[in-house]
Automatic annotation (TrEMBL):
<dbReference type="GO" id="GO:0048040">
    <property type="term" value="F:UDP-glucuronate decarboxylase activity"/>
</dbReference>
<keyword id="KW-0456">Lyase</keyword>
<dbReference type="GO" id="GO:0070403">
    <property type="term" value="F:NAD+ binding"/>
</dbReference>
<protein>
    <recommendedName>
        <fullName>UDP-glucuronate decarboxylase</fullName>
        <ecNumber>4.1.1.35</ecNumber>
    </recommendedName>
</protein>
<feature type="domain" description="NAD(P)-binding">
    <location>
        <begin position="19"/>
        <end position="315"/>
    </location>
</feature>
<dbReference type="GO" id="GO:0042732">
    <property type="term" value="P:D-xylose metabolic process"/>
</dbReference>
<comment type="pathway">
    <text>Nucleotide-sugar biosynthesis; UDP-alpha-D-xylose biosynthesis; UDP-alpha-D-xylose from UDP-alpha-D-glucuronate: step 1/1.</text>
</comment>
<dbReference type="InterPro" id="IPR036291">
    <property type="entry name" value="NAD(P)-bd_dom_sf"/>
</dbReference>
<keyword id="KW-0333">Golgi apparatus</keyword>
<keyword id="KW-1133">Transmembrane helix</keyword>
<dbReference type="InterPro" id="IPR044516">
    <property type="entry name" value="UXS-like"/>
</dbReference>
<comment type="similarity">
    <text>Belongs to the NAD(P)-dependent epimerase/dehydratase family. UDP-glucuronic acid decarboxylase subfamily.</text>
</comment>
<dbReference type="GO" id="GO:0033320">
    <property type="term" value="P:UDP-D-xylose biosynthetic process"/>
</dbReference>
<dbReference type="GO" id="GO:0005737">
    <property type="term" value="C:cytoplasm"/>
</dbReference>
<keyword id="KW-0812">Transmembrane</keyword>
<keyword id="KW-0472">Membrane</keyword>
<dbReference type="InterPro" id="IPR016040">
    <property type="entry name" value="NAD(P)-bd_dom"/>
</dbReference>
Length: 333
């Protein structure tokens, strides 16, 4: 198991006031935990469209944490000063953004403008969680930040790809036109505890199916590849990037590429499940291969992912088992 020493807790020079929008989501809630651990003050905003209150329930009562339930499609008025406005709000998995297509377009367009305006008003820095989906079905492999992407502007994933491409364009327009400091990351497939078990992403699907003894649904022949990043590696990259003055975009992902079938087999081994694999047709516009080129993040942030797939999946499976236990306990009581 490879674990190098570059996951440092970098203490803040002074506590910062940080607005995290999308804070009750999977990535947002882990980021909030880390920012609070580093001594900052966090105002968490979420409309709970795909996020879950349980993800931040452990923070209720924390002296430096406040939660506001709000839909960022509407402007947000805040009295206090802010150092950072961090925009992680958006449905993020294909079943979710396809279920909420208009909301996805709106949060990435109107929501992004409201947060960019708020950052300007507060003289704060703006952070955007973009996605590897801006590369679409990429024409280069692995993907460097210079790749403009191969997206279908009106295809079944367009509400998300084009929403994020618009959000990047808006952030760069405010940066170039108003001099607003921005940081844009492009997140590649990330997994870990607190993912919604029904979000339709491969890791959650496979773990849920393996633990339930159901067949693991593999789309296509399973030879298409994914590169999976564990959430603590992503959060470490984000925190490092907050200390570096560069608008990006910067890829954050794990470059180790595995076939979907290999991932399924690893999850079967780690769960000890005897579930078979069941093969289904590949969805339209599903990317065949996606792998980040992380040389920019390595150079700029001195960052590289350190959590191996075995270790990250084992932690995620343990958390899923724990959640399942809680669920069964709640049903019994
Ligand atoms: P998530 O769905 O768990 O979190 C997104 C959060 O945003 C949710 O809590 C949701 O309720 C909230 N939200 C959505 N619309 C909102 C609105 N209008 N107002 C306020 N809150 C709103 O997804 P995630 O996996 O944690 O993703 C977080 C961010 O990272 C997203 O912007 C996503 O596009 C990006 N991203 C994630 C991945 C990944 O692998 N998890 C990959 C690429 C990009």
């Amino acid at each position: 198991m490879v674990r190098t020493t570059n996951v440092l807790s970098l203490p803040a020079e002074r506590p910062l006031s940080i607005l995290v929008v999308g804070a009750a989501g999977f990535v947002g809630s882990h980021l909030v935990d880390r920012l609070l651990d580093d001594g900052h003050r966090v105002i968490a905003v979420d409309n709970l469209i795909t996020g879950r209150r349980e993800n931040i329930a452990h923070l209720q009562g924390h002296a430096r944490f406040r939660f506001i339930e709000h839909d960022i499609i509407q402007p947000l008025a805040l009295d206090e000063g802010l150092d950072w406005v961090m925009h992680l709000a958006s449905p993020a998995s294909p079943p979710k953004y396809q279920h909420w297509p208009i909301e996805t377009l709106e949060v990435n367009s109107f929501g992004t403008h409201h947060l960019l305006d708020l950052a300007r008003e507060k003289h704060a820095k703006f952070f955007l969680a973009s996605t590897s989906e801006v590369y679409g079905d990429p024409l280069q492999h692995p993907q460097k930040e210079e790749h403009w992407g191969n997206c279908n502007p009106n295809g079944p994933r367009s509400m998300y790809d084009e929403g994020k491409r618009y959000a990047e364009a808006a952030a760069m327009a405010y940066h170039r036109h108003y001099g607003l400091p921005v940081r844009i990351i492009r997140i590649f497939n990330t997994y870990g505890p607190r993912m919604d078990p029904h979000d339709g992403r491969i890791v959650t699907n496979f773990i849920r199916q393996a633990l339930a003894g159901e067949p693991l649904s593999v789309f296509g022949d399973g030879a298409q590849t994914r590169s999976l990043q564990y959430v603590s590696d992503l959060v470490e990259g984000i925190v490092r990037y907050m200390k570096v003055d560069h608008p990006g975009p910067v890829n954050l992902g794990n470059p180790v590429e595995r076939t979907v079938k290999e991932i399924a087999e690893m999850i079967l081994r780690l769960t000890g499940s005897a579930s078979p694999l069941s093969f289904h047709p590949l969805p339209e516009n599903d990317p065949k291969r996606r792998r980040p080129d992380i040389s920019l993040a390595q150079e700029l942030l001195d960052w590289t992912p350190t959590v191996s797939a075995e270790e990250g999946l084992a932690r995620t499976i343990e958390a899923a088992r724990h959640d399942q236990g809680l669920l069964q306990g709640a049903r019994r009581s």
